[in-house]
Specification:
Helix content is about 80%, strand content about 0%.
Length: about 130
């Protein structure tokens, strides 16, 4: 009985929730984040940036805002996989690799902004 409930939960509810959350993040969030307050009949810069560095920074900000909820969902799914492994070493190894992959992805997303700031400061220091 217990295994049937876990199998049903694992095969129906969580994947649908994960897919709908990702779809919501991909299609709705950009329209909210990039909403323009330009008056009708005028041509405005949709990127709202003046330099390449500012454009990259804006893109990274959007990626971070979209990536954080996805990271949280993957951490929850990884925890769910740890719990449902029930001591099976193969499933436990899969859950561990998923956890470390999620941590590496998080470091990459957050680290990209840090790398951009370091490069901007270095280029500004060289050109002065």
């Amino acid at each position: 009985m217990k295994n049937d409930f876990i199998h049903t939960l694992k095969s129906s509810v969580f994947p649908k929730t994960l897919i709908s959350s990702i779809m919501l993040s991909v299609f709705v969030a950009p329209s909210i984040l990039l909403a323009d307050s330009c008056p009708p009949g005028t041509l405005c810069n949709p990127l709202k940036t003046d330099s390449f560095e500012a454009l990259i920074g804006a893109i990274l900000d959007v990626i971070i805002k979209l990536g954080i909820p996805i990271i949280v969902l993957f951490l929850v799914y990884t925890g769910f996989t740890f719990v449902t492994s029930q001591g099976d070493t193969k499933k436990l190894d899969t859950a561990k690799s998923m956890f470390w992959g999620t941590i590496a992805g998080t470091a990459l997303i957050v680290g990209a902004k840090v790398i951009l700031l370091i490069l901007q400061n270095t280029i500004t220091g060289i050109t002065k």
